[in-house]
Amino acid sequence: MSLRTSLIIPAYNEEKGLPLVIEEYADKVDELIVVDDGSSDRTFEVAKRYEVKLYRHETNKGKVEALRTGAEHATGDILIFTDADHTYPARYVPEFVAAIEHGADLVLGSRLRTVQNMPFLNRLGNHFFSFLAAYISCMHITDSQTGYRALRRAMFEKLEVDAKGLEFETKMTVRAAKLGYKIVEVPIEYRERVGKSKLRPFRDGAKMFFALLSVAYSETSILAKMIMLPSFFFLLIGLAIGFIAIYEQFVLGGVTHSYYPLLTTFLILIAIQLTSIGLIVDYLTKKLDRIEDRLLK
Q1: Whole-angstrom Cα distance, residue 271 to residue 277?
Q2: How far apart are CA 148 and CA 177, in angstroms?
Q3: What is the pTM of this model?
Q4: Each residue of 90-124: pLDDT tens digit?
């Protein structure tokens, strides 16, 4: 028995891109849900022309609330998220569904195949946050921020995260990895967006950074935290000694103790090693828990 698919499109002032997305995905999914998130343009009127399940927020509540509204009304076994700006091609839907059917818990559309259509700052941030997400989760992740993803409907609540903006995707990805779920990435083409981007690189980047730290702490086991705890003290001491060395070099004309730079480097490396060991222990623990759950089922 094939699984039914529900596509959820959050739309805020996307009157130009939305019809292109609806027309492209119409024959690729069983159910198409559009959530107009308080648009001030003709997004809602444009969506009404098509045979879709259409919902509207009277005020702009943010992309995350739009996705939640769509998920609440979805009837498909698989939820697929995409953006209303026509950047994500529909032709990858069968690959997403096949990955879910073969055991994947979360499928991500990795945009690294065609990064030229991504603004430079966005591209830089994507690489940085994907590296950070991969380090925290001990899993190879190339695009943790992608808005093109699929998961079983029952998984959506399990991966529910406290987020309001564009940090939602990153937190969901890392939480899935930290909980030991199987993540599969499908390389995709990323097209130039239709309409004006709503991403604010520095502000949204800061939110993503603190969101990653939040998930890293909240989803890490007590055993791993105990291993990682000394690393913060080593890091603070190392940075303090490094600051003293820099101050003495530039203000006093020379470092009082020549071993300060070496000690700084040594302490920081110890901190990184302890953090890495803690994260690896946490990853193995969660992975074994997931394997045990699957065997019990």
Answers
A1: 10
A2: 17
A3: 0.77
A4: 999 999 999 999 999 999 999 876 666 666 676 77
